[in-house]
Specification:
With 107 residues, the chain is mostly helical. It is built from 1 helix and no strands.
């Protein structure tokens, strides 16, 4: 092997070593970036889960309030209907009594 060949092989070896170190550095940096991205994604997932939990709790509270309000309105409507029915029955009873008295007078 000639001196030129040895120099070429040595230069190639140095170049490969330099590239290898550079590649290792880049791979380590990429690994660090991937780890940071994973941490950020985990934090975002936790935040999203908390937001969903809060929204679900708020929706449950609003649903409970709506059900309670509907129950109150139903009770009020039932009471109004009962009062109206009682008033109508009383009026019908008075008319029946008046009709009965009128019939008795005509006999």
């Amino acid at each position: 092997m000639s001196i030129k060949g040895i120099i070429c092989v040595a230069a190639l070896g140095l170049a490969l070593t330099a590239c290898s170190e550079k590649s290792q550095g880049q791979a380590a940096a990429a690994g660090d970036h991937a780890a940071a991205a994973a941490v950020d994604a985990g934090a975002a997932t936790v935040t999203a889960a908390k937001d969903v939990g809060h929204a679900t709790a708020v929706a449950a509270d609003k649903t409970g309030a709506a059900v309670a309000n509907a129950a109150d309105k139903t009770a009020e409507a039932t009471a109004d209907a009962a009062a109206s029915t009682k008033a109508a029955a009383a009026k019908a009873g008075r008319k029946a009594d008046a009709a009965s008295e009128a019939a008795a007078k005509t006999q």
